[in-house]
Design goal:
The chain is about 35% helix and about 25% strand. The protein has about 230 residues and is an alpha/beta fold. The longest helix has 12 residues. Bound molecules: S-adenosylmethionine (SAM).
Length: about 230
C-alpha cells in the first residue's frame, strides 16, 4: 500500500480532487464533472488503491468459483475498467459497463473488456435496461458519499435475473458517512419486502488508503430471490 505522502508528492492536486469527489453537497452531475477532469485516474488509483481491483477479483473468484464464464455481468460505475479487467483475466467474457463519465468510459471502451456501455447514473431513475437481464452485478468503489446510494437498489434488483446476485465492494469508512446512513437499513427493508436476500457482509482488509492511512473495504453480496 502506497503511503499518502508519496501520493501527495506525485500528485499535489490529488487531495483537492479527492475532497471534491467526496463532497456530499455536490450533485451527481458535478461529481461526474470532477471525474471528467481526471484523465490520469488510473495513475492515481495505482497509488491510492493499488490492490483494489485484485482484491475484488479474488473475492469474486471465491464467491463465483462455479459460475459459467459466459454469465452476463454488469460492472456498475465501471470507470476505466480496472475492476472488470481483472474479471476478464479470470476468464469471464460477457461483461457490460454502466458509467456516467464520458472521459472514463471512453478509456474503458478502448480496452475491449465490455460488450456494451450504458452511459447512465445509478439513482432511483429507470435504467435503460430490460427486467431480469444480468446474472451478476459487480461494483467496486461506487457506493460512496457523493456517488451512488441505496436509492439505486430497486432498479438494480429489477434488472438482475431471479437468483442473480449483486457483489458490491466499498470503503468500510464510507458507510459511516451521514450520506450513507440509510444504505444498510434500506437493504434490510428490501429484504423484508422480498426484493433481496443479504448473503454476505465481510470486511476486506487493506482495500485502499486515505490521508489517515490504510482503509478496510466492505463486501456485500445480495441476491434476488428466485421466482
Ligand atoms: C472510484 S471510481 C471506481 C471505478 C471502477 N469501478 C474501479 O474500480 O476503478 C467510481 C466510479 O463511479 C462512477 N459513479 C459515480 N457516481 C455514480 C452514480 N451515481 N452512478 C453510476 N456511477 C457513478 C464514477 O463516474 C466513477 O467511474
Amino acid at each position: 500500500m502506497a503511503d499518502i505522502k508519496s501520493l501527495q508528492r506525485a500528485h499535489p492536486d490529488y487531495m483537492e480532487m479527492f475532497q471534491e469527489l467526496t463532497d456530499t453537497s455536490k450533485s451527481k452531475e458535478e461529481i461526474t464533472a470532477v471525474y471528467d477532469k481526471w484523465s490520469n485516474y488510473e495513475e492515481i488509483i495505482k497509488l491510492h488503491a493499488p490492490n483494489r481491483s485484485l482484491l475484488g477479483a479474488k473475492a469474486f473468484k471465491a464467491e463465483y468459483e462455479n459460475l459459467n464464464k459466459e454469465a452476463k455481468i454488469l460492472d456498475i460505475g465501471a470507470g476505466t475498467g480496472l475492476a472488470a479487467h481483472e474479471l476478464v483475466k479470470l476468464g469471464f467474457t460477457n461483461i457490460d459497463a454502466l458509467e456516467p463519465c464520458e472521459t472514463l468510459a471512453n478509456l474503458a471502451m478502448k480496452k475491449n473488456i465490455y460488450k456494451k456501455l450504458y452511459k447512465a447514473y445509478l439513482c432511483k431513475d429507470r435504467l435503460p435496461i430490460e427486467d431480469n437481464v444480468y446474472d451478476i452485478i459487480y461494483s467496486v468503489g461506487v457506493f460512496a458519499p457523493g456517488h451512488a446510494r441505496e436509492d439505486a437498489f430497486e432498479e438494480l434488483f429489477r434488472i438482475l435475473k431471479p437468483g442473480g446476485q449483486m457483489m458490491t465492494i466499498t470503503g468500510e469508512g464510507y458507510l459511516k458517512d451521514p450520506q450513507m446512513s440509510n444504505f444498510e437499513p434500506r437493504m434490510a427493508e428490501l429484504e423484508k419486502e422480498g426484493i433481496l436476500i443479504r448473503r454476505k457482509r465481510e470486511i476486506l482488509p487493506f482495500y485502499s488508503a486515505d490521508e489517515n492511512g490504510p482503509m478496510n473495504g466492505m463486501i456485500f453480496v445480495l441476491e434476488k430471490p428466485a421466482n
